[in-house]
From TrEMBL:
<keyword id="KW-0030">Aminoacyl-tRNA synthetase</keyword>
<keyword id="KW-0648">Protein biosynthesis</keyword>
<dbReference type="GO" id="GO:0005829">
    <property type="term" value="C:cytosol"/>
</dbReference>
<dbReference type="InterPro" id="IPR014729">
    <property type="entry name" value="Rossmann-like_a/b/a_fold"/>
</dbReference>
<comment type="similarity">
    <text>Belongs to the class-I aminoacyl-tRNA synthetase family.</text>
</comment>
<keyword id="KW-0436">Ligase</keyword>
<keyword id="KW-0479">Metal-binding</keyword>
<dbReference type="InterPro" id="IPR001412">
    <property type="entry name" value="aa-tRNA-synth_I_CS"/>
</dbReference>
<dbReference type="Pfam" id="PF00749">
    <property type="entry name" value="tRNA-synt_1c"/>
</dbReference>
<keyword id="KW-0862">Zinc</keyword>
<keyword id="KW-0547">Nucleotide-binding</keyword>
<dbReference type="GO" id="GO:0006424">
    <property type="term" value="P:glutamyl-tRNA aminoacylation"/>
</dbReference>
<dbReference type="GO" id="GO:0005524">
    <property type="term" value="F:ATP binding"/>
</dbReference>
<dbReference type="InterPro" id="IPR000924">
    <property type="entry name" value="Glu/Gln-tRNA-synth"/>
</dbReference>
<dbReference type="InterPro" id="IPR020058">
    <property type="entry name" value="Glu/Gln-tRNA-synth_Ib_cat-dom"/>
</dbReference>
<dbReference type="InterPro" id="IPR049940">
    <property type="entry name" value="GluQ/Sye"/>
</dbReference>
<feature type="domain" description="Glutamyl/glutaminyl-tRNA synthetase class Ib catalytic">
    <location>
        <begin position="6"/>
        <end position="261"/>
    </location>
</feature>
Amino acid sequence: MLHATVTRFAPSPTGLLHLGHAHSALSGWRAAREAGGRFLLRLEDIDPGRCRPEFAEAILDDLHWLGLDWDGPVRRQSAHLGEYRDALAALERRGLLYPCFCTRAAIAREVAASAHAPHGPDGPLYPGTCRRLDPDARAARLARGEPHALRLDMARALAAVPGPLSFDEAGVGRQACDPARFGDAVLARKDAPASYHLCVTHDDALQGVTLVTRGEDLRPATDLHRLLQALQGWPEPAYAHHRLLADSSGRRLAKRHGAPALRALREAGRSPAEVRALAGWPD
Ligand code: GLU
């Protein structure tokens, strides 16, 4: 039996949607609707410091205004923290995670002091300080309730999955993955119960997403996502990483570069059809 296409749009409610988000949402929505499949909406709101309920409401409203509809209820990650905890516990039981007590400043000092600090897609690679902690010292610090993140032991994780990993880029073909370039990635932060990488792979599997449509800025993250899927025995979706919209000077649209919010365009009298065209998806 052929499986129907399931896509999703998964914004983080840290601000108002801009044209770049509209492009991404329309990419997923169109792919699902053209295939007679399902389009899901997920709010990635696990970071309590950056996410705001008013932005979540604004996202739903702006998407409706833009003419998008989605199937089933909106999944809000903040309502499912127990599921992410369970997913982390499964990795922990296999010895694939370790607690990291380092502060950002301590890591930065260590990186600065080292002659060849390798960099990955998320910044300088963690030097592995807490991986090498003496087990008694580690247990004592945990018993004292010292705040800690959870990191993936990359070497052990790679040893726990068969063969080289790859993924299917729609219309392009198999792409090789190199998750090691993330080093010992953080899967739960001190201030957030689970990382983007953990939650996104968990939810794509749980929600039966078959095609992940998202910007090419997240292309490197797919290498780590394939590793997490392989470790957890989760199904492998296909990926369609789309180009990022640029402004007239060729600069990538982003909130920090003043990309126009959908709301501002709407208030300026643009119609949904005009905004869909501005977002690269004319009707
Ligand atoms: N929540 C992520 C973001 O807003 C997108 C996640 C994804 O599409 O994989 O950048």
